[in-house]
Design brief:
By secondary structure, the protein is an alpha+beta fold. The chain is 28% helix and 29% strand. The protein starts with a strand and ends with a strand. The model has no long low-confidence stretch (mean pLDDT 87).
Length: 500
């Protein structure tokens, strides 16, 4: 799937937060300031102060000279990171993968998310409108790369959604500052007349590296998508994760039940296909008011039984308080284990076994529907020769004289008659390096040691067989054998079975 990223820029992050908590600040110019090198320096400004020429980095005394009634509030170190993390937790309803982009932004991996809101344009409008309604001044952009999305959000003028594959063209007309470069590099670029990215993109990389350093080239490569940019997500994606946004806020227990069933069906379908069952499951419900509620369940054995798991969650639905409404449900399985398919109880020796009259009735119905010749029962038979280790029986009451041999693995499908194959091997007594069966070449990646099987001397004079279990490059396993010694006349290779 083609990767897409959204960048959110909170131009007045800290001052917006103060204005939300203290409404009387909304209509007054104010700044945040902190001591630096024996001076009180402005670290953040609100929109009104910015309009009157106050910028971060100015001395608070100089700013007061420009705006006598300017309010100066002490800044708290680390507040922006805490605030961005809090907003990121709220934004998880729009994407499960969110990273803090200090000092004033968030990065969202929105791959596969936007269709739930009707496309990228509607998605971006929804996110920005919801954050603006909370009181934040925010701009956003969507592009194929993190660097391009970051640049368009801060330096774009009209189009804030860059179509897939068009991020390079969108970047070329921007200022070098859009590459997230430090001030020293930007000053050098401006002195050389590079006022847009287009002007130096055609230059040789060696010349750019020599003059501006490796970090300069790294930022270009990240923005253009030639190098992936790692992100530290607030919540790393669980291997088994499902999410379900709500078109309308869910306020009832019935709606919560429907959401849980849908999530369980999707998750358990995947678990079943991969032969796994969950041991723990965590449900999170993201409410409109920003709070997260939920429930957690655990099982004694791994399972993907949707009905059973829903009954466990059903006991906890009453404790989930929807308040004004839930707009996103997520379900994760942090602990899963391999699950083995149990043998059906109908084949058990006690009570529900072959003597069960219901089994006989079922077989009678099947025989009359598809024909008795299409139903077979096999019993083990004493013989070394693979073709003679089983025998057919016509009734359900006949018992086996001896048990099934389990000393060595045997294929789940044994051909009625071995079929010849062409092989290539390194040494005479080694397993094949590759073999050709029905025109398809199989390269052998793994092989077990040979198992020699000889026929009963009183039945036949056929040569012995050296069997190998081999696995090809696609993980498929086969039962191959060489008939007789490698240098004997008539020695050939055959395929005799397939493993599950």
């Amino acid at each position: 799937m083609h990767k897409r990223y959204a960048s959110l820029w909170f131009r007045h992050l800290l001052t917006d937060r103060l204005a939300i908590r203290q409404p009387d600040l909304k209509n007054a110019p104010f700044v945040l300031a902190a001591p630096q090198h024996n001076r009180i320096v402005i670290t953040a400004v609100n929109a009104l102060a910015l309009q009157q020429g106050i910028t971060p980095g100015m001395a608070a005394a100089d700013a007061k000279a420009v705006i006598p009634n300017l309010k100066v509030i002490d800044d708290v170190p680390g507040r922006s990171a805490m605030l961005l993390r809090s907003i990121g937790e709220w934004c998880i309803r729009y994407s499960p993968l969110i990273a803090v982009d200090e000092p004033d932004g968030l990065i969202l991996d929105i791959t596969g998310c936007t269709h739930l809101w009707g496309g990228e344009e509607a998605y971006l409008k929804e996110v920005i409108a919801r954050l603006a309604a909370k009181g934040y001044t925010v701009r956003g952009a969507i592009a194929d790369t993190i660097g391009a999305a970051w640049a368009i959000a801060r330096f774009g003028k009209e189009q804030f959604i860059v179509e897939p594959g068009m991020h390079t063209d969108a970047m070329l007309k921007l200022s070098p500052a859009a590459l997230r470069l430090d001030s020293i590099i930007l000053d050098r670029l401006h002195k050389l007349g590079f006022y847009s990215i287009r002007r130096f993109m055609g230059l040789k990389r060696q010349a750019l590296r020599r003059r501006f350093g490796d970090h300069f080239l790294l930022r270009i490569d990240q923005a253009m998508g030639t190098i992936d940019e790692p992100l530290l997500y607030l919540h790393p994606q669980e291997a088994y994760y499902e999410h379900l946004p709500s078109l309308e806020p869910v306020r009832t227990a019935g709606g919560i039940e429907v959401a849980i069933k849908t999530l369980l069906q999707n998750l358990c379908k995947r678990l079943k296909n991969e032969g796994k069952g969950l041991r723990t499951a965590v449900l999170k419900c993201y409410r409109i008011d920003g709070k997260v509620v939920g429930a957690e369940i655990g099982t004694n054995r791994p399972t993907y039984n949707t009905t059973h798991l829903f009954k466990l969650f059903e006991l906890k639905i009453a404790s989930i308080e929807p308040a004004l409404g839930i707009e996103l449900f997520t379900l994760t399985a942090p602990k899963v284990e391999d699950i083995s398919i149990e043998q059906e109880a109908i084949w058990a020796p006690d009570g529900c076994g072959l003597n069960n009259s219901r089994l006989a009735e079922l077989l009678d119905k099947l025989a009359n529907k598809i024909g008795a010749n299409n139903i077979h029962r096999y019993l083990p038979q004493e013989s070394y020769w693979p073709e003679r280790t089983t025998k057919k029986t016509l009734n359900l009451t006949e018992n086996a004289v001896n048990g099934w041999s389990i000393s060595r693995p045997r294929p789940s499908l044994l051909l009625k008659k071995p079929e010849p194959i062409a092989v290539t091997f390194k040494l005479p007594d080694n397993p094949p390096m590759l073999f050709v069966y029905k025109g398809e070449k199989h390269i052998v990646k793994k092989a077990d040691d040979a198992e020699r099987i000889e026929p009963e001397w009183w039945r036949t004079t056929r040569p012995h067989r050296d069997y190998y279990i081999v696995e090809d490059e696609q993980g498929r396993r086969y039962w191959l054998f060489r008939s007789g010694h490698f240098d004997a006349e008539g020695s050939r290779w055959y395929i005799h079975g397939f493993f599950a």
